[in-house]
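Structure (tokenized):
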């Protein structure tokens, strides 16, 4: 079996087109969405991600608000920039690009929850636990949207999430068990006693452990959907959590790069537009 590709790049392009229409409608009502970013230092990966986000914004009509700080910036200096974006009416939502080398929880907690486009503010994660509307984390929602846009059945599916990080594994499990998704979720990690046995029962596998090649073909149910969210470096190159041979067993598979990564960007843009739309309610 050769797996169907879960094409995140194509889905991102479609979502941009849809969002551009919504942005134009907002502008007709006097609201221009604005994305703010705070970048500390000159890490090449972080700089690339921030530039990509603003490129996406330019393509669909969202205003860019960049706040770039030197690597020597103190926590107080970063918090001052965060307060400024909280108070800036032109800024619909913003994020502080990690890592900063500073107290990430202090910084994240200082963001206005209504402007938290990453969906990772403690208040917003709390609303997710309680099942109340709030900005949702981008990568988990990107996984779900990627499955939906390729007609992969989610309702009633057994999902194995491999990874327990706060940005992907933990919130994804909560989202998938909502009534709107109705999946049955098993949360796995590097300490799971028989990881292969757990994964082999799953209709959908989300690999987000950050361990190169942790998911191999013998662990995957034939025809399952496999999403590779892991990002590691092996010999200077990006490596995912899913081994190459999985594509011969799975029914659907997301490439890495080109799968979930573009969907994270798509959901960030969606969160910015939805925050602007809330101003009309």
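Design, position by position:
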């Amino acid at each position: 079996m050769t797996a169907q590709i879960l094409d995140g790049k194509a889905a991102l392009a479609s979502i941009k087109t849809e969002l551009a229409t919504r942005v134009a409608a907002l502008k007709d009502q006097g609201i221009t969405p604005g994305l703010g970013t705070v970048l500390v230092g000159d890490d090449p990966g972080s700089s690339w991600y921030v530039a990509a986000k603003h490129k996406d914004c330019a393509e669909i009509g969202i205003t860019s608000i960049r706040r770039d700080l030197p690597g020597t910036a103190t926590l107080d200096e970063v918090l001052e920039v965060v307060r400024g974006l909280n108070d800036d009416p032109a800024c619909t939502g913003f994020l502080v690009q990690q890592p900063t080398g500073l107290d990430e929880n202090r910084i994240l907690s200082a963001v206005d929850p209504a402007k938290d486009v990453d969906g990772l503010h403690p208040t917003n994660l709390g609303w997710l636990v309680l099942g109340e509307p709030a900005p949702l984390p981008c990568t988990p929602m990107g996984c779900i949207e990627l499955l939906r846009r390729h007609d992969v059945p989610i309702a009633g599916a057994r999902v194995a999430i491999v990874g327990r990080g706060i940005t992907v594994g933990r919130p994804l499990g909560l989202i998938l068990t909502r009534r709107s998704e109705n999946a049955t979720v098993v949360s796995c990690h590097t300490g799971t006693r028989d990881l292969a046995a757990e994964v082999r029962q799953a209709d959908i596998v989300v690999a987000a452990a950050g361990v190169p090649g942790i998911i191999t073909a013998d662990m995957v149910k034939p025809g399952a959907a496999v999403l590779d969210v892991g990002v590691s470096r092996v010999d200077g190159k990006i490596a995912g959590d899913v081994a190459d041979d999985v594509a011969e067993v799975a029914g659907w598979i997301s490439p890495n790069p080109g799968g979930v990564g573009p969907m994270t960007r798509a959901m960030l843009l969606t969160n910015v537009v939805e925050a602007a739309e809330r101003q009309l309610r």
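Reviewer-requested clarification: The radius of gyration is 19 Å. The chain has a mean pLDDT of 96.
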